[in-house]
């Protein structure tokens, strides 16, 4: 193409406009960042506080797709969503959600799983038939909240006490649910077929106490499961669950609740009775572990953890106020960044 002044001027004009546009976008991004909040991925706050009188959430999961947190409720059963600004609204509800405990967001399959129980008078939906007897798994579409399955697990062992507490999901999509009132871990496959994965009296707790609690899946083919009254985390092989063993540690984990696998060698454990989150490090595939740090929460009854990018957040649930009959009930709850 022959060179001409007009084509050269056109090129210069185009470059100038592109430069101006780029400068404007950078300036806008900078101002948005300084204003604190209109970028698509704003900086994560240290604390998200939300007000819902007597909600008493126990489970929390961060949804990176929509930048929101899902929270459960012991007292109402409904699952809510919380934004960074503290705005709370109900995400999904169903009459069978007597009390929702642990949550698990299976993002790749667009599923939100909830452990469903009945703690008795603490739930507005409690009935004489289900109080202390209910263990169920509710599965929702994580995008629209539609209930896709409800699996009553307690019917696998009728007559005993049951309390579904927490959930882990393996690479194939199988869900594992702990029962705090029976020494049982249930398994539910992708088709909704339920079975007893592990049942052993060594995992039992005294009557009325919480036994099995938090649970996570390790990609090397096993589960890590907290037993609250014993203060122990157990390693449970998927291919041979009866060969479970305690993770040897000098640290008592009494009151162990939520677990989070930070990486393949690091497990975070919430102890609500000790008001502490322990960071356990392992160099032998969790045959043993040592404490590599701890985070004191104060008297807030911390329960469960969730990951947000490279950060970890813990839910301050204030359940001691609920179990103690505090009146008026707690109104403000918070999701807080964990800092060791």
What can you tell me about this protein's structure?
This protein has 340 residues and is mostly beta strands. It folds into two domains: 1-32; 48-337, TolB, C-terminal domain (Neuraminidase, 6 Propeller), CATH 2.120.10.30. Helix content is 11%, strand content 41%. The protein has helices spanning 5-35, 319-323, and strands spanning 47-51, 60-63, 68-71, 79-82, 88-92, 99-106, 111-117, 135-141, 147-152, 164-169, 175-179, 184-188, 194-199, 212-218, 222-227, 232-237, 245-246, 256-263, 266-271, 276-281, 290-296, 302-308, 311-316, 332-337. The protein has a four-stranded antiparallel beta sheet with strand order 1-24-23-22, with no helix packed on it. Strands 2-3-4-5 form a four-stranded antiparallel beta sheet, with no helix packed on it. It has a four-stranded antiparallel beta sheet with strand order 6-7-8-9, with no helix packed on it. The longest helix is centred in the first third of the chain and has 31 residues, at 5-35. The model is unreliable at 1-39 (pLDDT under 50).
Break the fold down into its secondary structure elements and pairings.
Blueprint: H1 5-35, E1 47-51, E2 60-63, E3 68-71, E4 79-82, E5 88-92, E6 99-106, E7 111-117, E8 135-141, E9 147-152, E10 164-169, E11 175-179, E12 184-188, E13 194-199, E14 212-218, E15 222-227, E16 232-237, E17 245-246, E18 256-263, E19 266-271, E20 276-281, E21 290-296, E22 302-308, E23 311-316, H2 319-323, E24 332-337
Antiparallel strand pairs: 1-24, 2-3, 3-4, 4-5, 6-7, 7-8, 8-9, 10-11, 11-12, 12-13, 14-15, 15-16, 16-17, 18-19, 19-20, 20-21, 22-23, 23-24
Organism: Hymenobacter roseosalivarius DSM 11622
InterPro entries: 6-blade_b-propeller_TolB-like, Sensory_adhesion_molecule
Keywords: Signal
